[in-house]
Amino acid sequence: MTELHLWLRHEARSTERRTPIVPSDARRLVEAGVTLTVEESPQRIFPLAEYTAAGCRTAEPGSWVSAPPDAVVLGLKELPERPEALTHRHVYFGHAYKRQPGAAALLRRFVTGGGALLDLEYLVDDNGRRLAAFGFWAGYLGAALAVLQHRGRLASPLTPTTREELEETLRPAAGDEDVAALVIGALGRSGRGARVAFAAAGTDPTCWDLAETRDLDRRALLEHDLMVNAVLATSPVPPFLRTEDLDAPARRLRTVCDVTCDVGSPLNVLPVYDRVTDWAQPVRRLHEEPPLDLIAIDNLPSLLPREASTDFSAALLPHLLEFETGGAWGRCLDTFRRACREHGLDAEGPHQD
Question: What are phi and psi of 167, to 5 degrees?
Fold first, then answer.
């Protein structure tokens, strides 16, 4: 492996407590000869002292903007709006390849500065399967919040917790009625997580995947109490829920959790809402009569930051240890360049060869 300098940045979003690299895996990187600089972060679930003990360098929050040119900046969620020109290679979830709002502007920042986006969503193997993902925990938390909302026990604002504490609140209480739940995308990572949470809540959900969504039984969908969508479409498909379905007087569906939060994308399978919800206001009423509540939080796994970070870091570590322009990272770079070309941008730059 060529000499590598990773720069773990502070997350600008105040509710983001996860990290892509936990201290125990940071130690393995350092022992392998990687230089790892970790920015101080008041909300990161692991304190800076644990990274220092692992042999990492430290830096002030946001100092990645002046990191050495060859440093690879590692994060999870969106970058701050400044600087306008991004000069480094950035590894994080950019959400810029499906014509989401702001996608062109973000890609232009990279092209202007000569940097590159190595999007973690597109870190895939030869068969296109993602190599590191938070999907299980997104599905798990999506289903958990949906059950608590349906039972009238979802407290806001949301705060980070542990799996043990959350499952204590999920256990059925006296008087709780059976919940007719539906998981769409039940065989994927997020779908499996949703099924585990429903099991903890004493609920046996209906499970749909490709076979059921190819010829969608919309009436059957609307006959459930709650639905968790765990399908992130990569090509156009008929929507699972339409605006006219909200007006259906026979609709039993009362709670929807959209784990994918693909709002604004032309591939969105739930085009019945135009903005996500958040920790302060996790639920939004989409329709009054009959009522329908929406949960669409785009960083659900951060509610279980320790468990989610530990799993993700373990999956990402071997690929950081083999960081290079070929293989999975090369595919990331190719995807970035292709997305730029689709926006009429020239993505050839000094950090990309």
Answer: -70, -25
The residue assigned the tokens 């090509």 is: 235
Query: Based on the number of CB atoms within 10 Å of its own CB, is 86 exposed (0-12), middle (13-18) or buried (19 or more)?
Result: buried
DSSP reduced 3-state for 117: strand
Which residue is listed with tokens 């995947």? 209
Q: What is the pLDDT along the chain (353 residues), one digit of tens a residue?
A: 458 999 999 999 999 999 999 999 999 999 999 999 999 999 999 999 999 999 999 999 999 999 999 999 999 999 999 999 999 999 999 999 988 889 999 999 999 999 999 999 999 999 999 999 999 999 999 999 999 999 999 999 999 999 999 999 999 999 898 999 999 999 999 999 999 999 999 999 999 999 999 999 999 999 999 999 999 788 888 999 999 999 999 999 999 999 999 888 888 999 999 999 999 999 999 999 999 999 999 999 999 999 999 999 999 999 999 997 679 999 999 999 999 999 999 877 544 33
DSSP bridge partners of 131: none
From the CA atom positions of the chain, what is the Rg in Å? 21
Q: Catalytic residues, which ones?
A: 77, 95
Q: Which of 303, 247, 250, 310 is nearest to 279 (CA)?
A: 303
CA–chain centroid gap for 282, Å, is: 16
Cα 322 from chain centre? 23
Do 194 and 142 form a contact (C-beta atoms < 8 A)?
yes
Identify the CA nearest to 184 among candidates 218, 157, 156, 152: 218
